[in-house]
């Protein structure tokens, strides 16, 4: 085992002994420190076999880091330097808000899962955009960067919030994701209903045309939609001309869990989500007949699981909870595994 691998494993064991939110904060700090010292692994893993063009963007590899990992764009360059083929920052809402009281992040170690009820803690779009401007001014980014569009808890018109954030980040990110599926913001998931979704996407697409023409606009959906609701989502997305679908966000289901924290409120992610999120992805692929690029997310922690998402119809894959158990190197390791076939 190399020194770097041994150090990474020791660091991971240390992080897992900390309270989960504190562990995440320290992981971001460590990532940035390593990057500042010039010790990052050296950029996104890539090869002719791994590289792909989706929309108008070039991805060094198809394995990205999902929304929620770097909500406030604190470690964009350092994260991309550690191997993934893209990163989705956010969710970001217009105004700063603290989110729910702690504790609000739980490891379900026996189940290899995570429950979170952050409730959209965000530094707000001005602070995050200024940070990203500084990152971009320092050096070009080596892979596409997406932004998860969020809404303030107390805002009556959630779509107006998406539009405001999209406008502020125009030119700063490569693609946008409308998040209508977080279970931790009251009434947000109501936007997944047929009429509400059509209206939300129409307004978001109009804003994209006006403020960030050419930037792909995706929608991220919940795994808890039934067959009829999924079919409505697919139809609305195709009719509105949305550029892609991210499937899926966290689940409210608690089926088959063994861990002590299984009954905490919030969204469940990680291994317990893999089967359902892959099923939803496959169903969307069938419904959209390859007309829309799909991003497969939910429970990916191995090369085989990434392959299963691609086989179910994903053009790109994302992960977050897998990093909690496998370390940030996991995204690059999975990409290397895909390259080997
Ligand atoms: C702590 C945490 C925070 C998250 N925050 C967001 C968010 O702000 N916006 C969003 O769309 N998804 C968010 N997610 C969902 C992830 O992006 C992803 O869809 C979900 O966790 C399933 O993937 P995984 O099993 O690989 O974690 C969050 C997930 C976790 C665990």
TrEMBL record:
<comment type="similarity">
    <text>Belongs to the dihydroorotate dehydrogenase family. Type 2 subfamily.</text>
</comment>
<dbReference type="InterPro" id="IPR005719">
    <property type="entry name" value="Dihydroorotate_DH_2"/>
</dbReference>
<dbReference type="GO" id="GO:0006207">
    <property type="term" value="P:'de novo' pyrimidine nucleobase biosynthetic process"/>
</dbReference>
<keyword id="KW-0472">Membrane</keyword>
<dbReference type="InterPro" id="IPR050074">
    <property type="entry name" value="DHO_dehydrogenase"/>
</dbReference>
<dbReference type="GO" id="GO:0005737">
    <property type="term" value="C:cytoplasm"/>
</dbReference>
<dbReference type="Pfam" id="PF01180">
    <property type="entry name" value="DHO_dh"/>
</dbReference>
<dbReference type="GO" id="GO:0044205">
    <property type="term" value="P:'de novo' UMP biosynthetic process"/>
</dbReference>
<dbReference type="GO" id="GO:0106430">
    <property type="term" value="F:dihydroorotate dehydrogenase (quinone) activity"/>
</dbReference>
<keyword id="KW-0285">Flavoprotein</keyword>
<comment type="function">
    <text>Catalyzes the conversion of dihydroorotate to orotate with quinone as electron acceptor.</text>
</comment>
<dbReference type="InterPro" id="IPR005720">
    <property type="entry name" value="Dihydroorotate_DH_cat"/>
</dbReference>
<keyword id="KW-0288">FMN</keyword>
<comment type="pathway">
    <text>Pyrimidine metabolism; UMP biosynthesis via de novo pathway; orotate from (S)-dihydroorotate (quinone route): step 1/1.</text>
</comment>
<protein>
    <recommendedName>
        <fullName>Dihydroorotate dehydrogenase (quinone)</fullName>
        <ecNumber>1.3.5.2</ecNumber>
    </recommendedName>
</protein>
<dbReference type="InterPro" id="IPR012135">
    <property type="entry name" value="Dihydroorotate_DH_1_2"/>
</dbReference>
<dbReference type="GO" id="GO:0016020">
    <property type="term" value="C:membrane"/>
</dbReference>
<feature type="domain" description="Dihydroorotate dehydrogenase catalytic">
    <location>
        <begin position="50"/>
        <end position="339"/>
    </location>
</feature>
<keyword id="KW-0560">Oxidoreductase</keyword>
<dbReference type="InterPro" id="IPR001295">
    <property type="entry name" value="Dihydroorotate_DH_CS"/>
</dbReference>
<dbReference type="InterPro" id="IPR013785">
    <property type="entry name" value="Aldolase_TIM"/>
</dbReference>
<keyword id="KW-0665">Pyrimidine biosynthesis</keyword>
């Amino acid at each position: 085992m190399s020194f770097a691998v041994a150090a990474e494993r020791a660091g991971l064991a240390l992080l897992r002994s900390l309270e989960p939110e504190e562990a995440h904060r320290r992981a971001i700090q460590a990532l940035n420190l390593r990057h500042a010292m010039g010790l990052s692994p050296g950029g996104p893993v890539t090869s002719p076999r791994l590289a792909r063009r989706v929309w108008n963007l070039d991805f060094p590899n198809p394995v990205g880091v999902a929304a929620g990992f770097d909500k406030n764009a604190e470690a964009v360059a350092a994260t991309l330097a550690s191997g993934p083929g893209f990163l989705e920052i956010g969710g970001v809402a217009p105004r700063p808000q603290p989110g729910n009281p702690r504790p609000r992040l739980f490891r379900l170690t026996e189940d290899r899962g995570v429950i979170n009820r952050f409730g959209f803690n965000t530094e707000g779009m001005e602070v995050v955009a200024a940070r990203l401007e500084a990152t971009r001014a320092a050096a070009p980014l080596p892979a596409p960067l997406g932004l998860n569009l969020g809404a303030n808890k107390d805002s009556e018109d959630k779509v107006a919030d998406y539009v405001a954030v999209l406008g502020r980040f125009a030119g700063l990110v490569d693609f946008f994701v409308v998040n209508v599926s977080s279970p931790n913001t009251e009434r947000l998931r109501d936007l997944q209903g047929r009429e509400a979704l059509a209206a939300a996407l129409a307004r978001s697409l109009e804003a994209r045309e006006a403020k960030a023409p050419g930037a792909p606009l995706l929608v991220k959906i919940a795994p808890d939609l039934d067959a009829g609701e999924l079919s409505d989502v697919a139809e609305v997305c195709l009719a509105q001309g949305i550029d892609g679908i991210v499937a899926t966000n966290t689940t409210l289901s608690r089926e088959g869990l063994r861990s002590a924290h299984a009954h905490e409120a919030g969204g469940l992610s990680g291994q317990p989500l893999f089967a359902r999120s892959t099923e939803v992805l496959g169903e969307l692929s069938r419904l959209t007949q390859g007309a829309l690029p799909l991003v497969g997310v939910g429970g990916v922690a191995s090369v085989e699981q990434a392959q299963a998402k691609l086989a179910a119809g994903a053009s790109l894959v994302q992960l977050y909870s897998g990093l909690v158990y496998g370390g940030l190197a996991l995204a690059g390791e999975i990409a290397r595994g895909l390259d080997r076939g």
